[in-house]
Fold this protein.
Amino acid sequence: MSRSLDDRVRDVRRLLAAAESVFHARARWAGAIAASTGLSPEGVELGFASLERHATDDELRALVASAGDAPHVHVVLSANVFVAPLRALAVARAAAPRVSVRSSSRDPVLTRALVEAAGDRAIALVDERDVAAVLPPGEGEVHVYGRDETIADVVARLAHRPDVTVRGHGAGLSLAVVTRAAAIESAAELVARDVVLFDQRGCLSPRIVAVEGDRSRARAFAAALHDRLSAWALQVPRGALLPDEDADARRWRDAMAFAGEVLQAKGHTIAVAPAGAPWWLPPPGRHVQVVAQDRLGDLSIPMAPLAPFVVAIGTDDAVRLGEAMGAWPARTEEARGRTRRAIRLSGLGRMQRPAFDGPVDLRWRRA
Amino acid sequence: MIRAFEGGRPMPEPFDALALDLARFQRAHVPGYARLCEARGVNLGRAERAIEAPAVPADAFKLARVFAFDEADAGVTFRTSGTTLGARGAHSMRNTRSYDAAALAFGRAMLAADLPPGAPVLVIGPSSREAPDSSLAHMCALFARDLGGASSVDPVSAFVRDGAIDVAGLRAHIAALGAGRPALVLATSFALVHLLDAVGAHGTLALPPGSRVMQTGGFKGRSREVSADELRRDVARLFGVATRFVVGEYGMTELSSQFWEATLVDPAARHAVYVEPPWARVVPVDPVSLEPVADGEVGIARIEDLANVDSAFAVQTHDRVRRVNGGFELLGRPAGAPPRGCSIALDEMLSSARVAP
């Protein structure tokens, strides 16, 4: 490690300070972000509230430890929620004395704002699309945040560069688990908050909620969530959906109406799945499938087909969920050492703001 | 309707009247359809056209029972081949009489009208023994039994065993056919790609003159991908037939009827344009409003199939189609715009070519 831990923490703190500065001047960028993300102005404001500006020393040490060490990290930001560039830059800067970043062409605003506010000469914005041309010979890393095909494209372009490591953070999804101990109303409020942020376009947004108990409890939770999302819509209206999102929503809504029960409002849809039906992933845009789960220990069965894509699980009782799921806690701890296929556990209502201790996606696809 | 079609007579009842009768029957006996009608605010009692009745999303066949009878009365259940998120779509029927009658009537007309009785039928695809719940295997076995003669291969064994094509057996069988009687080959695109690979670029399995080949199904992600035109040309060369004798079929497990390219019966017909039997129709609809799009515009296929008596008279698919003169063009799944954010979509998950860790 050529730089000391303190140096790295200091460099990350500089980015957090930049985030603080951007946050206070957010009105300058809010319009452009609303246009590029499709979020309502209120949704952009709420999104800004989840932009990290502070972190504990423990979190920063964990972030540095997770970041690794490289002479140069090139960050490719392709598809993310709009506040995600901060963490991506922080991980890269913790790892390397030199960072280059190509912002998303559709959503470049916050990346540029952060880099300018940081005033860190070690971080350079680049427009070059050829990743091989950005990284000089020698050991380097490319951190790609985007769809799987984007990651595959970067890997292919670097096939002739064995000196470069690609860390891909692909698209994913998250779940929420409401245990028997949770009060339905308060759990619904917390899940609603996680759903509303970024209109569910982030991989940390819960799209399926497993409610421990029988179907009547799941229905009660669905009704409470319907109520809370309706209330949220008055404060933070859902933004415009893309035509494809709208079409997917229609398809999902009709399938769920046929198979189960649907609670629908202008800006959201909740479906209660029939007993024994497979989990049918809703599209982003405030669509939630609620499933009854009799035993937490059996959660892995319906979840299995989705498991490779699950980034995080929010729950009111991480300890009990961890115990119930057997091997999960160990995997989660290993993930801090970048083991594959780990899942982040978060508190309900905190799913979109996990500890600032490294990448949000602990699955760590390495290529 | 099927009998009228076979007898060359006009349809006994208007399509929409029959369709709405079916929709009302299914609303009364399929709980999911009643829920869908309610969620969509549709009063079938006041409906005048079939398009007013909601179509059942094809996904629903993976999530719930789509049949109007007691489960114990299900005589056969066809299942989709792919396991989507751990679920296979299931289409149950009391029996296959309607399915068989519809498939045979239109299949015979589009594929075998000029074939002499007892033509050899060769199945290069899943056999009904290997895939007992495959509607395609059932259809191929049905055609082999009904259209084929003594020279037909036992349709339950066909030429695919344990997922591998028996090229030597196929070659020997074709060599023994003689030149006098045209044959009918029923094959999946997936199997044809593998057969072409096995035989080699210059290999041939020449069929007797007048023979024809049914080609069905996609093969994306299951083998090397070739364009439909290229595959058709290669198949025609392999079997020594004109390209118009390679006839595409489009069907779904969720349906009881099939759609065919008309190139064999109409020399002016184009490939990739499918025609419907009189008891089924394909309506391109807007993917959001589910209203029919203007003539000539691309929409997703709402398929109304009056042979789906006990399940869903209308099935909403995700396939893009366009009405053209004489039928509809099948345009495949929408490519879609790049999604916003890092939240994964269902279709993206299904087609995810994940980067190796």
About this structure: Confidence is low (pLDDT under 50) at residues 329-340 of chain A. DSSP finds 14 helices and 13 strands in chain A. Residues 215-235 of chain A form the longest helix (21 residues). The CA atoms of residues 184 and 220 of chain A lie 7 Å apart.
